[in-house]
Structures are given as structure tokens and as C-alpha cells.
Amino acid sequence: MCDTPVTPKILSLDVSGSLGRVNVVIEEDSACFGGAGADYTILDKDRHVLWQNSAAGIATLSSRHDGVQDLTFAGPGMSVPIWSWNAGKHSFVFRKTVETQ
What we know:
This protein is mainly β. It is built from one helix and eight strands, in the order E-E-H-E-E-E-E-E-E.
């Protein structure tokens, strides 16, 4: 994205429900993505993009929507966004932000 060569990492993540395992492609480049440090792309088994943005980390939560675990993405600052599966849109959609201390 920033004309900088990177070697992507691929993480297999089980989010349960109808999605099961998804692939997360992580492209780390702090010069390009600032404090977040990386670009994350979540792909289903058919390689459709389910979510893409910069973040410092990813985690599954115990809460679920449409049978699929919610996700949170770490980044700079004291708040974390929660993203939930929306089967009708076939993507993760922003649900809310939680303040951390």
C-alpha cells in the first residue's frame, strides 16, 4: 500500500458458526500504518474480504452475533472497537467501542 516491500503473515483463526476458520492476512509496516503497525485483511474460505483495516492486533471474544464470535482489534489509544458478524452483509460490521483503562 505504501510502495514498501513486506512479507505478509497468514493467521488461521476459528470464529465458529457458519464461517468456521478464516484466514487473516497481516501486512506489518509501521511507517505505512503508523501506531497500529499493520494492515489486517480477513478472508473467508472463498477468499472474500470480510474485514480490512489497520490494527495492532486481533482477538476473538466470547460474545457472538449470527453464531459467529465477535472480534476486537487493538490499536493506539485507550479504546477498542468491537466488530460483529452480519450474515446478511457477509461481513463484520462495527458494533461499538469499549474504553479500556
